[in-house]
Specification:
The protein is of the alpha/beta class. It contains seven helices and 26 strands. The chain has helices spanning about 5-15, 155-165, 205-215, 230-240, 260-265, 300-320, 370-375, and strands spanning about 25, 40, 50, 55-60, 70-75, 90-95, 105-110, 115, 120-125, 135, 145-150, 170-175, 175-185, 185-190, 200, 215-225, 245-250, 270-275, 280, 285-290, 290-295, 330-335, 345-355, 360-365, 380-385, 395-400. The protein has a six-stranded mixed beta sheet with strand order 7-4-6-5-9-8, with no helix packed on it. α3 runs parallel beside α6 and α4 (about 230-240) packs across α5 (about 260-265). The radius of gyration is 32 Å and the shape is elongated. It starts with 5 loop residues before the first helix and ends in a 6-residue tail after the last strand. This is Molybdopterin molybdenumtransferase.
């Protein structure tokens, strides 16, 4: 089987993805970042009454037609406490921002445009147009008006308007459920003492973080030993969990102990593709188990994370109905770049801002796919296309940004 180009692999993966249909009702405090499943209409009118946009005095415009007009202050209207008296011609009501406008008033004059006199009177010092500084009832929205649309992502502004419309809960699409299964006799969980031939299992934590940040609910299926029946049992358990994606870690290559692919085939997986023209991450496997998409990630930690950013993150975001995230930016090489071979390289690198504000990329010398310390220090991945020629410093190239460099 020939190696599949990265772009083709991603296109085939996403073309088979169907966004989740499940919905649930969540409270506003838990709704940030979720996607609305239904239109949301206002349950009331906002503002519910004419109110003042500024601190000042509510007046009849006819009483302030000239600078130097003198009015008697007949009362006060503040937020939550409307003026309930009467005010005749030549009288004003002290009013504060958000307070209900008295029925007699048609204008608000700013407090700084008046002079406070003795005996509860004011004198105007500025001409104010009629109707100024008043927020009319329903200026924002009216009862029954659809303000939010299904498919919108709930951010700070949309959550705020949902609350103002008197909705304590909203109907949203459920998060895609991603189950992660690690395989390998050599693996033990963090906190345990590994045996002479064992290592600490680390991949699942980074893969889970990428999936969660993309909008998934993650189910950790733990570590399964290199045994056909044990792997099959774990896969069958996962299939009973109403999951959308099954991610396996390790065991998808062609070694004597790489059992995941044949076991998944026994469970009914239809293999779509396997082996990608990329480095690291060539052994990536993609298939389907009924309505569940399967991604078999390489066992090396760096390979599994690179593939998660390239394939799992966009898959989860599509399933979650979230807009695609484009991490790829253009940067200038800070050092000479070597010629590349037939596989697309994703090279761990540092990113800094140049004098012009643009990105400068410097790859690390060591790129072994088992070395996580370098990945933890990397700001991005330098992308070297197949057969890319050698480049001099200053050449423009693509980078996949993992974290934004400091300004």
């Amino acid at each position: 089987m020939s190696l599949l180009p990265v772009a083709d692999a991603l296109d085939r993966l996403l073309s088979a993805a169907r966004p989740v249909q499940r919905t649930e009702s969540v409270r506003l405090h838990d709704a940030a970042g979720r996607v609305l499943a239904d239109d949301v209409a206002a349950r009331l009118t906002q503002p519910p009454f004419d109110n003042s946009a500024m601190d000042g005095y509510a007046v009849r415009h006819a009483d302030i037609a000239e600078i130097g007009s003198v009015l008697r202050v007949a009362g006060l209207s503040s937020a939550g406490h409307a003026f309930d008296g009467t005010a005749g011609p030549g009288e004003a009501v002290r009013i504060f921002t958000g307070a209900p406008l008295p029925a007699f008033a048609d204008t608000v004059i700013l407090q700084e445009d008046t002079e406070l006199l003795e005996d509860g009177r004011i004198r105007t010092t500025f001409l104010t147009p009629k109707g100024r500084h008043i927020r009319p009832r329903g200026q924002d929205f009216t009862a029954g008006e659809v303000v939010l649309k299904a498919g919108q992502v709930l951010d700070a502004a949309r959550l705020t308007v949902a609350a103002a419309m008197n909705h304590p809960e909203l109907s949203v699409y459920a998060r895609p459920r991603v189950a992660i299964l690690a395989t390998g006799d050599e693996l033990v969980p963090p906190g345990e003492t590994p045996g002479a031939s064992q290592i600490i299992a680390s991949n699942s934590f980074g893969v889970a973080a990428i999936a969660r940040e993309a909008g998934a609910e993650v189910i950790d299926l733990g570590i399964v030993r290199d045994d056909n029946q044990a792997i099959l049992d774990a896969v069958r358990r996962a299939l009973q969990m109403d999951i959308d994606v099954l991610v396996t870690l390790g065991g998808a290559s062609v070694g004597d102990f790489d059992l995941v692919q044949p076991v998944l085939g026994e469970a009914g997986m239809e293999l779509d593709f396997w082996r990608i023209a990329m480095r690291p991450g060539k052994p990536l496997m993609v298939g389907r188990l009924g309505g569940i998409q399967v991604i078999g990630l390489p066992g090396n930690p760096v390979s599994s994370l690179v593939c998660s950013y390239l394939y799992l993150e966009p898959l989860v975001r599509k399933l979650a109905r979230l807009p695609a995230m484009n991490r790829v930016r253009q940067a200038a090489a800070a050092v000479p770049l070597k010629q590349n071979d037939r596989r697309q390289d994703y090279i761990r690198a540092r990113l800094v801002r140049g004098p012009d504000g643009g990105l400068l990329v410097t790859p690390f010398e060591k790129q072994d796919s088992s070395m996580m310390k370098i990945f933890a220090e990397s700001d991005g991945l330098l992308i070297r296309p197949p057969h890319a020629p050698a480049e001099e410093p200053g050449a423009l190239c693509d980078v996949l940004v993992l974290r934004e460099p400091a300004a």
